[in-house]
Specification:
Blueprint lengths: L14 H7 L10 H11 L6 E2 L4 H7 L4 H16 L2 H35 L3 E6 L2 E6 L8 E5 L7 E13 L1 H4 L5 E2 L17 E2 L4 E13 L5 H6 L2 E2 L7 H30 L8 H18 L4 H18 L2 E3 L2 H7 L4 E5 L10 E7 L15 H12 L4 E2 L5 E2 L2 H11 L4 H7 L2 E5 L7 E7 L5 E8 H5 L2 E4 L1 E3 L2 E3 L9 H13 L3 E9 L10 H4 L3 E10 L6 H10 L3 E5 L4 H10 L8 E4 H6 L2 H7 L3 E5 L3 H13 L4 E5 L5 H6 L2 E5 L5 H5 L3 E3 L4 H41 L8 H11 L1 H7 L25 H23 L5 H27 L6 H4 L5 H19 L1 H7 L6 H31 L1
Parallel strand pairs: 1-9, 11-23, 11-26, 18-22, 23-25, 24-25, 26-27, 27-28
Antiparallel strand pairs: 2-3, 2-4, 4-8, 5-6, 5-7, 5-8, 10-28, 12-22, 13-14, 15-16, 16-17, 17-21, 19-20, 21-22
Helix pairs in contact: 3-5, 4-5, 4-9, 5-10, 5-26, 8-9, 8-10, 8-25, 9-25, 9-26, 10-11, 10-25, 11-25, 12-13, 16-19, 18-25, 21-22, 25-27, 25-28, 25-29, 26-29, 27-31, 28-29, 28-33, 29-31, 29-33, 31-32
The structure holds adenosine-5'-triphosphate.
């Protein structure tokens, strides 16, 4: 067994030395048994992180607020000078509140942790001679891995084979240009950036492909060593949370001033001879209780809980959110830029046309199986192809290339072809070049080059037609038959059917065989072998999802590397092209200025033949209009656009690691409809956040104003500290949380998006809070006024206070039912349709009755038994804010119906 530090300076060793020291095989990899054993010795391939929250830490953080500390201190003072039961009760209520807060935040943290697990990277590994995909955390030193453009490098590795490979090492070395990688050993004393024969954990492959042997995993990797213990990146507060933090601070100032006045006025209005420490302690406790109850410092934490709940619902609908802030942003998305392949279509590509160059350009039938010219094209399409047949004979690789292999499998013996015509060199496919080329050794020692790519890209360089008569290339020049425009037309007519069209060409190699293939020399003067048409059916749910976006005021834009006509046909099939919509090609895009582009956006639904860098411009152009843009991407070159977009959306199935890293959200099913579902959930979350903010702040305004007015008009305090705390921390807390579970309003996807600059308090929320808060305060003051008789304070004060305590508690429990929907009345929603809320209300009401009628509760909460008249008054007044809100909604519905 190899030891803890498996190999020194692996970059200077030859592959044989590496194989020996790491006891592995650079062709067949480790055995599974060996890999299992090594995993026990070396541990999982992950960086040990610090800074994760322990349960205790989370629980204690519930008390970290200085106002809570002050409350406990005030409780203790008042216990010393007066009533000890108050102190005990305050501590119990604060503890109860901490438990609720802890349970919710714990659940939210677990939800966020679980999301991280879902987005875990995987890597291609060969073990026991078989290549399969394993979780990157299970890699061990000695493993043989295969990475290609777009993959994250999962561990430090010594390169065995490098094909045109470049790696972005910026995260490790700060070098912004991609670095070329080779398999040749370098000097043992090379500095990190010069270790060309190594790839390092934390970097990513930007070009080509590599086979490599893992040398160090987890914390022993370079990135692990540099950082030592890497602190877990705790994401900062979301924009909404920042806004709420700011609001809490502003409100805290107002509440503290109000409480200061209540405290001072409470003392000053007493005759001087009654001033004593008990009076001061009582007033201090009242003021502090009110401050604790009314300052909404818990809002950002509840927002986390609601966002986490939203993210769980999104996972259930196949959208994995990587940052919590995305849940919030999703609700305001008003432009979705989507890839075509796999997102709007099924990514089930099938070759439906094979048109050999020998056939007359005017003939419409594709040639059929067994035709030697068809065999020739398919031979080229198989060799110039990175997809492979897995042990079960199924093609694996990109959908386009897999489709070609699947078609070729009917025509030719693929394994034999690989043996006879091994690939010696290649220029890989990129979305920018839209073609690839490979060189294969012929029997006479010369090289044949095959080129496969987007029809117009290849046809541009075609100068003759021909066939491939294996094993040697025979060109049949038939100048008089060959008109390039016939072939361009042919390609265009296939594209107009929504097919992806590839041209296949060949030539004898002209560049020296000892050198790399040259695009200039080896991709010019080509002989066209034929065209291939590939069909990819649209997703059945795409049209409905696009329709939904339209009614939700969201513009959908298709961005594709495919030909304009292919794109247009597909766009028509999914209902994306309305009468006025236009298609803009990458070429046209390049000629537009930023302003011109922004001006055209309103009518564009399709961008075709775009290069990845165009995506960034498109996002920026939309953002210049103040749009909130969701943009999909899968390739390594999509990363800048994904980062720039408000919501970068990566593909879970076909996407690269790099694109996933750059994105806010991952689609587990690559499906466009999932983005729309996530937007819908985002809107629901935002609605729910608004609802509980409205609810909590209305209650707070009501209480502060009630006490403030009472003191100003020289009434005794209508509520006592423990009653205030009870209402806010217990009666209010549970219904507010239950609001987070409210389901979608019926108009959630038929109203316009809320806009980038809209405030969470917009659309009348602040006015509602102020008005309904004032209504609650005034109503409760009236109840107090009716029941309290200044001539017989001892006889009437306890019942008057109890009636206000009950009325305020119940008015909040009733009011929450009206807050549930901004549109529908309770009887339209059903009382139990949010059963958590229903139970919170039932429980709150029962507890309230117990507090009034059970003798021990009466003692603890300073309540008195209410007679039936008093109780009836409290309950009926409590219903008024609820009834007013419902009546307003009903009237609005009626006026809408008559409009
Ligand atoms: P979509 O937006 O539909 O997902 P895309 O932007 O990913 O498509 P690319 O994969 O960049 O499109 O392909 C662009 C063009 O390059 C295709 O239209 C096709 O003609 C050609 N092409 C695609 N894959 C290959 C390949 N493996 N080899 C050669 N040419 C290819």
């Amino acid at each position: 067994m190899i030891d803890d530090h498996p190999v020194d300076t692996p970059w200077s060793k030859t592959s044989d030395e590496i194989n020996r020291t790491l006891q592995t095989n650079s062709a067949t990899g480790l055995t599974s048994e060996d890999a299992r054993k090594r995993l026990r010795v070396f541990g999982r391939n992950q960086l040990t992180t610090t800074g994760q929250h322990s349960a205790l830490h989370l629980f204690l953080s519930q008390f970290a607020d200085w106002m809570v500390g002050l409350l406990i201190v005030a409780g203790i003072i008042s216990g010393i000078v007066g009533d000890l039961s108050d102190t005990v009760l305050i501590v119990l209520i604060v503890l109860g509140n901490a438990v609720i807060g802890f349970a919710q935040e714990w659940k939210a943290e677990r939800a966020i942790e679980a999301l991280k697990g879902l987005a875990e990277p995987h890597v291609q590994v060969t073990r026991d001679g078989k290549t399969s995909t394993v979780a990157a955390v299970d890699l061990v030193p000695g493993d043989l891995i295969h990475v290609r453009a777009g993959d994250a490098v999962p561990a430090d590795c010594r390169i065995v084979t490098a094909v045109e490979a470049e790696v972005d090492e910026a995260p490790l070395t700060g070098e912004s240009l991609a670095v070329e990688k080779k398999s040749d050993p370098v000097a043992a004393d090379s500095a990190l950036p010069d270790r060309q024969s190594m790839i390092f954990s934390g970097t990513s492959v930007t070009r080509g492909r590599l086979d490599a042997i893992v040398t160090c995993t987890g914390n022993s990797s370079e990135v692990g060593r540099i950082a030592g213990m890497i602190a877990a990146a705790t994401p900062g507060p979301t924009p909404l949370q920042q806004r709420l933090n700011q609001l809490s601070r502003q409100l805290a100032v107002i509440v503290l001033v109000a409480c200061g006045i209540i405290f001072a006025a409470g003392i000053l209005r007493e005759p001087f001879e009654r001033w004593n420490s008990k009076l001061a302690a009582d007033m201090l406790l009242t003021a502090v209780s009110l401050a604790v109850a009314a300052i909404p410092e818990g809002l950002p934490a509840i927002v986390t809980v609601v966002l986490a709940l939203g993210s769980q619902r999104m996972v259930a609908r196949n959208a994995i959110v990587r940052r919590l802030s995305a849940v919030e942003t999703l609700g305001s998305v008003n432009v979705i830029c989507s890839d075509k392949t796999g997102t709007l279509t099924q990514n089930l590509m099938t070759v439906v046309d094979i048109i050999p160059a020998e056939s007359l350009p005017s003939s419409s039938d594709s040639s059929t199986s067994g035709d030697p010219s068809v065999t020739g094209i398919m031979t080229a399409a198989t060799l110039c192809n990175d997809a492979r047949l897995d042990p079960d004979g199924r093609p694996t690789g990109s959908a386009t290339e897999s489709a070609l292999l699947a078609a070729a499998d009917h025509e030719i013996d693929i394994p034999r072809l690989y043996r006879n015509r091994p690939r010696v060199q290649e220029i890989p496919f990129t979305s920018v070049r839209k073609r690839m080329s490979t060189a294969h050794a012929a029997d006479d020692g010369s090289h044949i080059v095959f080129v496969k790519g987007a029809a117009e890209q290849v046809l541009e360089s075609v100068t003759s037609l021909g066939t491939l008569d294996s094993p040697t290339l025979q060109l049949t020049q038939s100048g008089e038959l060959f008109r390039l425009s016939d072939w361009t037309d042919r390609a265009a007519s296939l594209a107009a059917d929504g097919k992806r069209v590839l041209a296949i060409a060949a030539r004898q190699r002209s560049s020296p065989t000892s050198e790399s293939l040259s695009a200039e020399q080896d991709e010019s003067d080509l002989t066209l072998l034929g065209l291939i048409g590939i069909q990819d059916p649209v997703r059945p749910e795409a049209a409905a999802a696009i329709q939904k976006c339209q009614s939700a005021g969201i513009q959908t834009v298709m961005i594709t590397g495919d030909h304009a006509q292919t794109a247009q046909a597909i766009a028509q099939q999914v209902g994306l092209l309305s009468n006025h919509a236009t298609v803009i090609s990458g070429q046209q895009l390049a000629s537009l200025s930023d302003q011109q582009l922004t001006a055209q956006l309103a009518t564009v639904n399709v961008f075709a033949r775009v290069a990845p860098e165009h995506k960034l411009r498109i996002v920026q152009a939309f953002q210049a209009r103040d749009d909130v843009v969701a943009m999909t991407g899968d390739g390594v070159n999509d990363a800048p656009a994904l980062k720039q977009a408000d919501i970068g959306v990566a593909m879970g199935i076909t996407g690269t690691d790099v694109s996933r890293e750059a994105s806010e959200m991952i689609l587990a099913d690559d499906n466009f409809a999932t983005i729309v579902a996530a937007v819908e959930e985002g809107r629901v979350v935002y609605d729910n956040i608004r609802k509980f903010i409205a609810y909590l702040l209305t209650s707070n305004v009501g209480e502060v104003l009630l006490l403030f007015l009472a003191v100003v008009i020289n009434l005794p305090l209508p509520l006592l500290p423990v009653q205030i705390l009870w209402i806010n921390l217990v009666t209010d807390g549970l219904p507010a949380l239950a609001l987070g579970f409210e389901t979608a309003e019926r108009d959630v996807m038929t109203r316009r998006p809320r806009g980038r600059r809209s405030s969470i308090f917009g659309e009348g929320l602040s006015a509602t809070v102020m008005i309904m808060g004032t209504v609650m305060a005034v109503l409760n003051l009236i109840v107090f006024f009716l029941l309290y008789d200044a001539r017989t304070p001892d006889a009437t004060l306890p019942a008057a206070r109890t009636a206000v305590f009950t009325c305020l508690s119940l008015s909040q429990l009733f009011y929450v039912l009206a807050v549930r929907s901004h549109e529908h009345c309770l009887w339209q929603l059903g009382f139990f349709s949010n059963y958590r809320l229903a139970w919170a209300i039932v429980l709150g009401s029962i507890l309230q009755v117990l507090l009034i009628y059970v003798p021990v509760c009466q003692r603890w909460f300073h309540t008195a038994e209410l007679d039936i008249r008093q109780l009836a008054m409290a309950v009926s007044v409590a219903a008024i804010p609820f009834l007013i809100t419902e009546a307003i909604k009903y009237t609005r519905q009626q006026t809408k119906a008559t409009d």
